[in-house]
Amino acid sequence: MISSFAVRVYYEDTDLAGIVYYANYLKFIERARTEWVASLGVDQMALRSVEGIVFAVRRVEADYLRPARFGDDLVVQTRLLSIGGTRLVLEQVIDRGSERIFAAEVTLVCLSAAGGAARLPANVRAKLQAI
Q: Over the stretch 113-130, which tens digit does the pLDDT of each residue have?
């Protein structure tokens, strides 16, 4: 399953040249991941308060292919690539119409309240495996 999330580029997202500042692509894909997890029926606040587990970004490999500009309508697509005992690997891409402008591979890990690695809860794993 590929999840899609729409983003409009606002003035605040750009630099002096009207081009999206590079770090804002990471914000766009973060928002899309949050919505993707919610669409699976996973309440991250409950996961934290009940299970003591949070997701954290461990690694991002990003390719900036074309610049996005003020006023652009973008679509972030999120796709699960793999599930491990404590981690998830996702592909996230940003398209402007039919043009791919950004691509990333993101590794998420589950952390305990103490900040150490934690196993992915069985109920969350089942939801992920269902896709």
A: 888 999 998 889 988 988
pTM: 0.93
Strand runs labelled E in 9-52: none
Reading the block at residue 96, the tokens are 């402007």
CATH code that applies to domain 2-129: 3.10.129.10
Active site residues per annotation: 15
Strand order across the 99-112 sheet: 2-8, 73-83, 87-96, 99-112, 53-64
The label of the residue with tokens 């490999």 reads 61
Bridge partners of 34?
none
Domain segments of the chain as ranges: 2-129
